[in-house]
Amino acid sequence: MADYVMDSEGEYGKYIVQTLQAPPFNEGFKSFYKTYAERLLWMDANVVPGAFQMNTSWYLHASDVRPLYGHDEHVHDFDEMIGFLGSDYNDPYDLGGIIEIGINGELHRLTKSSMIFMPAGLKHLPLSILELHRPILHFSISLSPFYGNIKSAGKGEQHESSTTD
Fold first, then answer.
1. Could you read off the pLDDT of 122-139 as tens digits, one per residue?
2. Which pLDDT value is given to residue 103?
3. What is the spatial distance between Cα 93 and Cα 86, in angstroms, rounded to a whole number?
């Protein structure tokens, strides 16, 4: 009997995600996303029953579109963690670019690897990639089985978002 199993084999391999299994985004959004990023992995309760939502992407290019998404501030009814990690292993705290993100109306320009905690109900975004000198690993973790906005801040619109922070 083997002392190990490879990758996602075995009884508990069902909890390991190694291929992209993102929700069905509309073609316009997918085309736009490809102009600046490459989505890597996505997990939510549709991919692994019982899981909370997490996604990862490589940001590869700065974008002239500012902000990136068609909505400004929004809120969630769940906590969220958002990260931007530089890819220079000799200087891992150097982000390798400038990311601009709004947190409750304050615009923060990030130049260092960063993790941001967004408590449920805290307005956040817009998001812009102002400069990019090296790829940036981006992740978002939502303490919810699925990602979605509860409303556009200040507009009271119910909608499900097909983007990530």
1. 999 999 999 999 999 999
2. 96
3. 6
Query: Is the CB of residue 108 less than 8 Å from the CB of residue 43?
Result: no
> How many CB atoms within 10 Å of residue 13?
12
For 42, 77, 91, 107, the CA distances from 136, given in Å and listed in that order, are: 17, 27, 13, 19
Fold held by 13-152:
Jelly Rolls (2.60.120)
Q: Residue 58 corresponds to which amino acid?
A: W
Looking at residues 53-68, what average pLDDT do you find? 93
pLDDT in tens, 61-96: 999 988 887 667 889 999 999 999 999 999 999 999
Q: What is the 3-state secondary structure (H, E, C) of 61-74?
A: CCCCCCCCCCCCCE
E strand or H helix at 94, and its extent?
strand 94-103
Q: Quote the distance between the C-alpha of residue 159 and its chain's center.
A: 18
